[in-house]
Design a protein that fits this description.
alpha+beta, Rossmann fold, D-amino Acid Aminotransferase, Chain A, domain 1, Dna Ligase, domain 1, six-stranded mixed beta sheet, 18 strands, 31% helix, globular
Amino acid sequence: MKKSVAIVFGGQSSEHEVSLQSARNVINAIDRNTYYITLIGIDKQGHWLRFDERDYLQNANDPARIKLSESGRLLSLRPGTQGPQFVEVDTGLDLPRIDVVFPLIHGSTGEDGALQGLLRLLDIPCVGPDVLGSAVCMDKDVTKRLLRDAGIAVAPFVVLHRGESVDFVSVSAQLGLPLFVKPASQGSSVGVSKVTDQATYDAALKLAFDYDNKVLIEQGIVGREVECAVLGNHEPQVSVCGEVVANDEFYAYDTKYLNDGQARIAIPADLPTDLSDEVREVALQAYRVLGCAGLSRVDFFVTEAREIIINEVNTLPGFTSISMYPKLWQASGLSYPELIDRLIVLALERAEEARALKTEVVL
């Protein structure tokens, strides 16, 4: 029997356009013999809109200008464990009950646990980590503290909250140069700056605080940028390692999503077998420590001294045509359609386990 999958995309974060690219790829690849799909776009004002597949994007082939079409029909959400979860506002038409949501909203409100919590209230299984894993991994400060306490190496860092300050001389003496300044809870290098002097430090703090109320100042690590894809619930698997060789100062937002060709991706990474195995094992450890499930991409620095340092863990990595997560699994023997199917099955399995838990105390 076919399952009903809602593909949810767009959102109010700075990664809205990337989300649209990811959604387009998943919509084109999902197995229609196995799944019915419902397209739900969230615009930049936060409205939930139902779209027909024939008309849901404008400028679909231009990553810089891609946007939702004007044809979306406003939805209202209906929490509860029975009946349809969505209704069209203008027509009063109920959408068929959704079996599982494939969320493709990167960044804040989509990757930070907010959407996952809402879907839990709607009693809809969700691809990817649940509320806690999503929230923990989105906040790089919390991520680093948990990994550090588990004995997993992270770059030395200092945290600033809005209203706090630390002068350039003292922080550079503590962490060295260059530094990287980034918002604590943004993805895809949004608001990230490389700092080499007082002027770039002041500008970097201003930019980072434009995107978040908490900012990380990190020691610059000289090393290769290696990534692993993790897939699974209780018995997760790890892909081959991949390496990003950016031609820019660092792997910036434009390089990831707008300037195809500005970064060279090597899959598998040219690492000695024992080192590659060690990186993959650390990825698995981090996945478990941070409460991930379903999927995540773990990003590392690997130094010449063979130090393995986690940069960040991304619980909803891109699914665009140049994104690392699906490419890593393709190189590991799992095709794009097979990956989508596996992610949906994992979400349904986790939901069945959750529904089997007791919710009442028997006295």
